[in-house]
Amino acid sequence: MKSILRAVKKRLGVDIQKEKYAYDLDEQFGYMAKAKIPDRWVSTTCGYCSVGCGMFIGVKDGKAVSVRGDAKHPVNEGRLCPKGLAEHYAITAPNRAKWPLFRNDNVKGKFKRMDWDEAVRTMVAHFRDIQERHGAEALGVISTGQLVTEEFYTLGKLIQLGFGTKNFDGNTTLCMASAVSGYKRSFGSDGPPGNYEDLEKADLVFLIGANIADNHPILCYRLEKNPQKILIAADPRVTKTAMMADIYLPVKPRTDIALLNGMMHVILKSGFVNEEYVQKHTRGFEELARHLEKYTPAYVAEITGLSPDMIRKTALLYAKARAPFIGWTMGVNHSTQGTETVNAICNLALMTGNLGRVGASPFSITGQCNAMGTRESGFASSLPGYRKFENAEHRRELAALWGIAEEMIPSSRGLAYPDIIENVLSGRIKGLWVIATNPLVSFPNQAFLRQALENLEFLVVQDGYHPIPTSEAAHLVLPAAVWGEKEGTFTNSERRVSKVNKAVDPPAEAKPDFDIFLMIARELGVYDRLFPGWTKPADAFEEWKKVSRGRLCDYSGLSYALLEQHGGVQWPYPEGSARDPRESFPLYQDGIFQTEDGRAKFWVVENEAPPESPSEEYPFWLNTGRTVEHWHTRTKTGQIPLLNRLSPEAWVEINTRDAKRLKIQHGDYVRLESPRGAIDSITVRVTETVAPGQIFVPFHYAEANANNLTINCCDPISREPNYKQSAVRICKLEPRGAKLRK
Ligand SMILES: Nc1nc2c(c(=O)[nH]1)N[C@H]1C(S)=C(S)[C@@H](COP(=O)(O)OP(=O)(O)OC[C@H]3O[C@@H](n4cnc5c(=O)[nH]c(N)nc54)[C@H](O)[C@@H]3O)O[C@H]1N2
Ligand SMILES: Nc1nc2c(c(=O)[nH]1)N[C@H]1C(S)=C(S)[C@@H](COP(=O)(O)OP(=O)(O)OC[C@H]3O[C@@H](n4cnc5c(=O)[nH]c(N)nc54)[C@H](O)[C@@H]3O)O[C@H]1N2
Ligand code: SF4
Ligand SMILES: [Mo]
369 CA to middle of ligand 3, Å? Predict the structure, then answer.
């Protein structure tokens, strides 16, 4: 036995405890490794992606030792993807942030411990001083899609009404801001209209720039329950999702608007417009119809690289489907035309009347576990409850609910995330508070960001992990509790609100973000006014229920007990609702939208060139994205050997023909350069998954950071960065590559 253990240890490079080989009988699972049989199971919702799988955390002796899927949960019926299955390891990872830390001797990356009282005092004193000297707006705050809704709600009030700065946004602007702006423009409000049930009931599923096999794996399980459907995938890269599809559309980068306009052209010309729906529920169709004239299949073929016949067939399949579903993710949103592409998708659904019914919906698949919660309750790009800054009536409602003067609520949104960074660079913002996001890996054009951060007088990073690239640049690090250590709610992509529970205590002095926000509110002197008597997330939940009452995202009929009972309930769920809480609920069933006249709006959108295209100097398209084993900047998954071993280092995918021409082989190391920066050394995968002239790099790896290369141009409406297309060149690394290969 000992020699086997030694051999395994040597091969895997991990310390395997002998105890793991002792098995015992667990009542539910049969024989299990003894160390993993928990004393109790705590129900919760997965803390990685927006699918929102229900699961349990196994706790033994106060430690998270295992996880399992919740067989009764409406989303995943017991299934979990590889990240979910290893999630308990993220809690016990060695790189957890444990104590408040203050920059020592003003040397970056060198810290001394501080106690909480002093840390909060220091933070508030610095931020107040900056605001007194340079004005309230000299403070910027960047948060996340990974806190519980109760925390977002509390944070929004703290920033906007406590600190009194509007310059508050989150990593969600790097993610689904284009979907939000697109929905607002087309339907008058944010809020994905469809449900996961649609994946099972649709007769056609059209995925645009969405690689669910890697990034929302449990949605593949939902799709598999629908063997009759036709699956179409549009993506420049032959992803695992494309490989599952019945029809794969290898669009050229950033040509989706042309494809969608082309499909609408064919639908119009073939008489498949749902005239009754268009007449009753929409406006602006005539203008759109005129605009579509030029998007003939031949014209669109030239732009997209697809054959005219393929465009025609796809259009007719969609038009003739009984209930077609369109799902999209970052291939659409990560673009300077992200919002307009979303509008083109909504145009297609509206003109055929394909929404508001089971199976038929234009559905933005969200990213982070609670990006939806921040959209509903946050106070960044909208007022809480999908209210609008510009709407005086909305501001009045909120002021009355909160018992504050109306003038305290801003009448326009503050700066979006990329604009906060630009203002840091120009010196207008001097203090920055970063919560649960890691920009020094994830923000585009890292050289620009690094230069900007140098200008800050005071940077506070509140994170569950340390050291990470962003916390190392901080003046003050606040250690946060993470998933499994705190309570609240998440909303998943299909508007299902579900419960998140505490299984174990946070390490050392780390605290739930909720507690940290209240401590700061006390120090700032706004606790009694904004959060009277609050001690726990449920206090925020109760107020949020009142604030959401009567809005599209109505929570007033929800309670923690109801959520626990059903494993999540979709909003709207008004008080007294007679709806079966487990039943799926499409929005806009009555065709009445959240616009002033109740009609959805068609938008005329034109396919434009991306901000940067390949040139002689930089001849390749760079596409960036994800892989199933890793989560974003790997602060969690990089510490989990089970996942990290599957994908331990970054890579670049290069087409066989390009590799041959450049005399590069699979496994070689190359240098990648863009006009903004470089990845010094990255291993090559020669593959047919990318087309000639295109390369793909995952953005998970700080040490080979794709964002050294990406361009920081943003959608003018949503402010979302154009992460998916930049121009780069590949440089062979002769001697170094050869050495590394050995
Ligand atoms: N394993 C894992 N899962 C995750 C995450 C993770 O980090 N790891 N992150 C979560 C988050 S926050 C998000 S936002 C989602 C993202 O989920 P996805 O959007 O599925 O992920 P990406 O890999 O960023 O991009 C999707 C696809 O867009 C394609 N694409 C690039 N350019 C274009 C284009 O011009 N047109 C079209 N049609 N497609 C294009 C890319 O080739 C890629 O396959 O995943 C969530 N789930
Ligand atoms: N090139 C390129 N860049 C991209 C993308 C791309 O496709 N290509 N995708 C973009 C997208 S869609 C996204 S969403 C972003 C994601 O980018 P980031 O937001 O930077 O990624 P994460 O690693 O998820 O960062 C979350 C941070 O929160 C911490 N954390 C986790 N839980 C908690 C908690 O409960 N409390 C606190 N305080 N901290 C916590 C984690 O340790 C981590 O440091 O990246 C964007 N960047
Ligand atoms: S699909 Fe998403 S929510 Fe479900 S287990 Fe995987 S990461 Fe978690
Ligand atoms: Mo995201």
Answer: 9
